[in-house]
Design brief:
The protein is mainly beta. Helix content is 0%, strand content 41%. It has strands spanning 8-11, 14-17, 27-33, 36-41, 57-61, 64-67, 77-83, 86-91, 107-111, 114-117. Strands 3-4-5-6 form a 4-stranded antiparallel beta sheet, with no helix packed on it. Strands 7-8-9-10 form a 4-stranded antiparallel beta sheet, with no helix packed on it. A two-stranded antiparallel ribbon has the order 1-2. The N and C termini lie far apart (42 Å).
């Protein structure tokens, strides 16, 4: 099977590629919220280069990839967790991919279409 590129679907005893041939680099975290799959990792775009603003976190819904607000995050995502309608993200990042939301400091909340820092602006790895 070709086009799997760091992420694939297993169903009915067979592997299949996700839209746009997956992602261009490795995946480190997955979380499901409703019927949406959130994916975090080291990737920046889809495997076929069709979507270039994913920046370490993306949503896969209805067979299509989409970027999160502010073009994702500036560095790698290691962990994802869902609580209610919020997605909590942990990693090595400090701000969004477009530098619009700062002081995220390795942990952030994504709610609807907005990023926010946690209390005390997250934490910094020394």
């Amino acid at each position: 099977m070709t086009g799997l590129n760091s992420i694939a679907k297993y169903s009915g005893g067979a592997w299949s590629a996700l839209a746009h041939n997956g992602l261009n680099y490795y995946v480190t975290a997955l979380a499901v919220m409703g019927s949406d799959l959130y994916v975090g990792g080291r990737f920046t775009q889809t495997g076929d280069n069709a979507l270039t603003n994913l920046n370490h976190i993306a949503k896969y819904s209805g067979g299509a990839w989409s970027a999160l607000a502010h073009n994702g995050l500036d560095e790698i995502v290691y962990a994802l967790a869902v609580m209610g309608s919020d997605l909590y993200v942990g990693g090595k990042f400090v701000q969004t991919g477009d530098n619009a939301v700062t002081t995220l400091n390795n942990i952030a909340r994504y709610s609807g279409s907005a990023w926010s820092a946690l209390a005390h602006n997250g934490w910094i790895i020394m």
